Amino acid sequence: MATSTTAPDADRREPRAGSPARRPARRPRGPRRSLLPYLLLAPAIVLELAIHVIPMVVGVWMSMLELTQFHIRDWSTAPFIGFENYRATLDLNSAAGKELLHSFWITLAYSVLSVGFAWLLGISAAVVLQRPFRGRAILRALFLTPYALPVYAAVITWSFLLQRDTGLVNHVLVDQLGLLGERPFWLIGDNSFWSLLVVSVWRNWPFAFLCLMAGLQNVPGEMYEAAAIDGAGFWRRLRSVTLPMLRPVNLVLLLVLFLWTFNDFNTPFVLFGGSAPEQADLISIHIYRSSFKTWDFGSGSAMSVALLLFLLVVSAVYLLITNRRRDDHA
Amino acid sequence: MRETAGERWGRRIVLTLLTLFVVIPLYVMVTSAVKPLQDVQNGFTWWPSRPTLQPFVDMWSTVPLARYLVNSLVVSTIAAVCSVAVAIFAAFAVSRYRFRGRGVFSVTVLSTQMFPGILFLLPLFLIYVNLGNATGIELYASRTGLVITYLTFSLPFSIWMLVGYFDSIPRGLDEAAQVDGAGPLRILFQVILPAAVPGVVAVTVYAFMTAWGEVLFASVMTDEGSRTLAVGLQGYSTQFNVYWNQIMAASLVVSIPVVVGFLALQRYFVAGLTAGAVK
Q1: Which of A226, A301, B47, B175 is spaced 20 to 30 A from B133 at the CA atom?
Q2: Mind listing the pLDDT tens digit for each residue in B39-50?
Q3: A chain contacts of residue B38, beta-carbon cutoff 8 Å
């Protein structure tokens, strides 16, 4: 995430702050003063170390241990086996490797589709709510509600809607519209992937909406006036004014949404009650289930580390490409 | 700039579709919560023909909802307050000082938020269990463990948003206070914080929501005594019966505080995102 698009730069509001880092620093008076920022940061650093950095290091170490159920009580007895866990879980010819690859493709499709639809709904809502009208504030609050709901409350409600015999979805599709002859299952089998996707879009699009709405507030109204005087219609204004102005927001938003959905655990876990059907076996669920079913934390950690490496590579490539494109435009 | 007829109709259609998409599940949640059990078990009906508040009474005895609620309240409140306190100091340092490692700190903290939760889950689980065995400090299956875990979850975003808020407060105010002889902490508490109250409140609500809604760690790191709502609500589906009306009633009750809090403060979130993210 090493770009100026995400790093919280100070001094943004100051008109002449072209390069905040080179601005003359607040002159420290004596050594006590220069220690102060570190003291202020200390609690945050300690917590980050304890809950994020150290467990991550431990996780990498665990991935190289034979940390099966026989050693889980006292992990100091677990033998070091190097990359054996990686070899076993990532071997695409083995059953475990095939399952992991399957889960990976499912997760990739889920993330791309979910982010795409969430963004599409978010930008639609942000654009149509851009100009004031009566009832706008109410709609804005309403649209944000799915994001404000606790995830389990939202997903449990959806699982009720998707029940085969008592749910709203089949009631409408089968009983009221008569589109389908037989009541389909939505939470098992092939349909479960699409159910998961709809629930995830319902949960996530308000976040896209919120960010895009914030981004649109930075677009000066005169730009639209000018475009309209030049005879630009709605789509032309969207393409030539709105989207370019939202570019910085979109860069961050799409990456963040992608990483969130790719790591999503809550939605499938609550929707399917902990046993996701194989058509909706997202990677987090897959690792969770295989770790706690067999108590083989070594291979669970190996899969987690591989997942992290994949996401780091994706993020790095994404940031490289988008930064180069920005330089071209400049 | 005038709106054309096409744009007006386009807007109406988009808004209608989005409203339906958002409202239907919420409608079902509310109406099913006031139906008797039989009416949610025998096929779906749009309208509660025999409305009753009984599910709101029964939900407390079907599962120990009160205990889950207290656990969630205690954990989320403490986690939110601690997280914001820690974030305020960190954000003050990042916003007002230039020091070595400032960029590294910001980037590292933010990127941890993007890492898969499952990556931390297995090691933290083992660390908590082993720490408990070795030293007697009970973090596994305790509310303390959850508080510590959750407060770091909201920390990165809280710091980030607060830096945005603090940056928007003119440095002239600091300098004036400095001339009057105020030290850094007095500047923070008497100049910056009073001006950043909306941001601090918004971040507190965000941290509370994060802890209130967390599922993954709650499902592994709690036992019957420390269970939170996130896991506890699943108790309404038993082997014999799924009490859908009580589930909807309980979901409604646990959602209202966070939804109201979030919606009341939404414009501060937008302001915070504009200050922090949109650059």
Answers
A1: A301
A2: 888 888 899 989
A3: none
Inter-chain touch A288–B121, beta carbons under 8 Å: yes
For residue range B220-269, what is the model confidence (pLDDT) as tens digits? 888 888 899 999 898 888 777 889 999 999 999 999 989 998 888 888 87
Cα angle: A213, vertex A219, A225; to 5 degrees: 120
Q: Which two tokens stand for residue A178?
A: 């008569």
Three-state secondary-structure class, residue B97:
coil
pTM, rounded to two decimals: 0.87
pLDDT of residue A33: 57
Residues from chain B that touch A32, judged by Cβ atoms under 8 A, are none
Q: Minimal CA–CA distance to A131: which of B1, B21, B268, B267?
A: B1
Interface test with B, best of A41, A72, A295, A305 (most B CBs within 10 A): A41
Query: Who among A21, A48, A144 is closest to B109 (CB)?
Result: A48
Min distance B43 CA to chain A CA atoms (Å): 4
**B229 close contact with A: CB closer than 8 A:** yes
Q: Along chain B (279 residues), what's the average pLDDT of each consecutive run of 10 residues?
A: 81 94 95 92 89 92 92 95 95 90 82 82 87 82 90 89 88 88 90 90 90 90 88 83 91 93 84 59
Query: All domains of chain B, ordered by start, with CATH?
Result: 56-276 (1.10.3720.10)
Q: What is the distance between the alpha carbons of residues B203 and B214, in angstroms, rounded to a whole number?
A: 17
Q: Are A202 and A154 in contact (CB under 8 A)?
A: yes
Domain range A52-329, its CATH number among 1.20.1250.20, 3.10.20.600, 1.10.3720.10, 3.40.50.1820:
1.10.3720.10
